[in-house]
Amino acid sequence: MGILSAVESSLLRQFGKTKRLVAVIVKSQRDFFLNLEDLKANKPKDVALVAFTPEASKPKQSLAAQSCFDAIIHYDDSKTFGQKFRSFEDIEITALDPFVDQLVELVPKDKICLIHCEEDSISTMCRTRKRLGLTGAYPEHAHYMCRKNDVFEIAKKGGIPLPKTMEISFRDQKLVENYVQEITSEIPSFPLFRKPQMLMGLRGVGKIESKKDLEVWIKQRLDKNDDETYIIQEYATGTEFTVSTVLLQDGSWVPLVVKYVAFEWTHSYCLSTGKPVVSINEPFELAEQTLFPGIRKFASNVIETFKPMHPQVFCFQGFQRTKGKDDYVLNELAYRPAGERVNPLCYDACGVNQYTALILASIDPNYSPKPKSSWKRRNITGIWYPQREGNLAEHSKFPEPPEINGRIMGQWNVSVNEHMEKAKNMNQMICTLFLESQSDEDRNRDIEWIAKNWTPKVDKT
Known about the structure:
461 residues, Dna Ligase, domain 1
């Protein structure tokens, strides 16, 4: 059975006849683009832009976002959403291949551009492109950036600084002491950090404080017959940061922002303790002149070493080991935008929407990301509180003057009295706060007060 209705088929056939390009951006998650600033005004008129998105995203589509597309095609994701998987390579968007099979019957292949924008759609879309001979990234162009063991091998050969790193597989089912010996002979000091080879969003990650903790964790994996491959690292310290860039069709790249976690906390530390993830976004040019000297050279080395296929939005995450110094280690790559959760902060910081940049870079060979003349920077800080085990006692009043100088815009993601388990990834947040400040000094004072004095009230069960 086909995915497309008769009306949709007719529309796509018409696009194929009248447009230079038919670009399809595929959504696997059940949200939709919050905003696509500057896309509608800058989309080339000879391009048809189509969104292929789950039915469940309909209630979340704003009129402004809808107006950016020439067509929005919805699909049933009931066989995809919520499926259990060990890695993102396992995920199949079951409606994708039937849809694209119909698409190539309606539109010439050389006019089709498939755009991926989420981690869990990269593999399936690369396979589809390759199967049908469509332009864009194939598995061999992307998988090495998603597999953490490949990332570290390539970075090591390219001379990019890394935490001490090794991989370990439980498929061999060795004795606990054999695994411990293998790990500690390679990385003798604690704490360690563990993460699955092919998952993102902090799924399956954790800090290993001691040899005893390592033994307990290995025994748990063996008892569960876990045959996954894990990456084991020395525990990186310092400031956790992410750099977002746009890879353009002419082979050049443009940096957008440096996002970093305040207080030298990390995402994993905040998940494990319940402390807030305080995310600060700085325009790249400002960041390299102040807190992150030499970050452009480091970014250039990463891009030259990994050679990600253009066009795309490309991000990498690492640690600044010494505050304010050119002392960086690479941790992970993302061959897609940094995510809708932080995308508004990116726009407020640099005047460029990551998803707008991704689409325009894919469809306009002359595109270069820059803010429109009327744009003005807003100093917005994102603050996320991870779920803690227990019941949410109340929707407390968000911080306000005179305790803080800035203005808070907040939303609750959990209902009063709702039971929560401890957060395992960044999608499991009690509430989200956006702090608007008039200056960096005000921001720094306010986030320190908030981190010390305000937290959601949770009754332990």
